[in-house]
Fold this sequence. Notes:
Layout: E1 8-11, H1 27-40, E2 44-48, H2 54-62, E3 72-78, H3 90-97, E4 102-108, H4 111-118, H5 122-137, E5 142-148, H6 150-156, H7 158-170, E6 175-180, H8 187-200, E7 205-209, H9 216-225, E8 230-233, H10 247-257, H11 271-282, E9 299-300, H12 303-311, E10 329-330, H13 338-347, H14 357-372, H15 380-390, E11 399-408, E12 417-425, E13 431-438, H16 441-453, E14 464-472, E15 483-490, E16 495-502, H17 505-523, H18 542-550
Parallel strand pairs: 1-2, 1-8, 2-3, 3-4, 4-5, 5-6, 6-7, 7-8, 9-10
Antiparallel strand pairs: 11-12, 12-13, 14-15, 15-16
Helix pairs in contact: 1-11, 5-7, 6-7, 8-9, 12-13, 15-17, 16-17
Amino acid sequence: METANKIQIYDTTLRDGCQSEDVSITLADKLKIAARLDELGIDYIEGGWPGSNPRDAAFFKEVKRLRLSHARIAAFGSTRRSGVKAAADRNLQFVLRAEAPVATVVGKTWELHVRRALRVSAAENLEIIADTVSFLKRRVDEVIFDAEHFFDGFYAKRDFALACVKAAQDAGADLVCLCDTNGGRLPHEVEAAVAAARQAVVCPLGIHCHNDCEVAVANSLAAVRAGAVQVQGTINGLGERCGNVNLVSVIADLQLKLGYRCIAPAKLGSLRALSSLVYELANIAPNSRQPYVGRSAFAHKAGLHVSGIQRDSRTYEHVDPAVVGNSRRVVLSELSGRANIVYKIREFGLELAPDDARINRFLDELKRLEGEGYSFDGADASFELLMLRALGKAEEHFRFIGFRVFDDKWHEEQAPFSEAVVVIEGPDGERSRQQAAGNGPVNALDLALRAALLPYYPVLASMQLVDYKVRVLDNGSGTAARVRVLVESTDGRRRWGTVGLSTNVLEASWRALVDSVEYKLYKDNIRPPTRAGGARRGAPGGQRARRRRLGVAART
Length: 556
């Protein structure tokens, strides 16, 4: 312990987190996560169970090359088997072969488990714990005993659960971590049990909670308030069943709300980036509503809220989003008021008087579009273009003439073949016809559009579509339903979202794709090339084309 206010953070993403049914992390990715955890200032990184699989065993060899500057690596195992001395137990030998400075072993503390799972007496279970801990303590720097099912055991047979904790302490455990393994206990139960354990032993205590009642964070905070000095958990709450406690939330709560020190204050701003990295490497879509670091954590939609945060952010935000590496977002919708519009206009670097008549016209148009089914929640780029057009500040870089898409499949074993033809009029007044093949009609349409535009705008070569979502709006209309398409694009430096709406999925996709291209050109400050005579071509196609680009005209 560095100070009385310091809470150790023990990360088990690489072991317990990998027990999520939808998670499989490669060795290379485990090493990347370990490096970032160390950079954040996490105290312990549990690398896995070296006796359970070759990947975990390999991790302990490779992690030594990282030369971590802060975190201590822990190897996980279980107490020795019944009838076998610790020195002869195969799993404990694997823990030692990992050559980690910390050994964490899990043992039974619930009499029901001792009787039903281990099928040994209470006395023998105490002997197993003591023999295991003392054996390891003579061979590694630090031993942590995970008291499995401690809280269920405590409320079933209090004296036995506390006797197990005391056995681990007396055998030399550096810390005993109390585990709510089934995740079924509530904060008041956890706080009372930790307080009782605090009275029964003098060794430091930790807390390890699962989230089956969705109170793992609250339980962990309650344990700290009762005297626990270490919190075990995973990044983003990954883990078996409903997951483990989310360390991102725990760190932020302990440090920002309760005044404890978990990591250096300057490192709190890395929480969102670490959360995103783990989601990406685990191949899981980020939880947009995750506290502190989710995309929606500081999103404001109601006009009353936006008006409030413009005067004082504390009116509708419990912390400054920048402290945890996040940012404020104002969302535009049919619930928006003038405050939202003014905020967004300023956010995009434009100045407009609050009483400008264009604000009301823009707000009316926005509400009309959302009434038709448009949603700009995940399509800030389309919204920004809509705003620029309404304010007369947008440039059209080409004029749409037409497109055609072919989709062929001639026998069952053949993969479908898609081809698109796009015709546009460039800024020089010349028509360009390009075709492209893709792995689907939207991919082909995307490739053909950019092929037609590349001669005029080479910067589009760096752009690619990275996400594509379709939402059916009229469920009762069957195949005639309107669809809303959300497209996410990137140029390697930034990502942006655009939206399109139609009863035709290809047209909806086309509108989103066109907005994506226009946004890239706008953000790169690319203006339409001048004609040979030097005069710049005006917005191609006039008002009708602009209305089509906004998605408000009849289908092409």
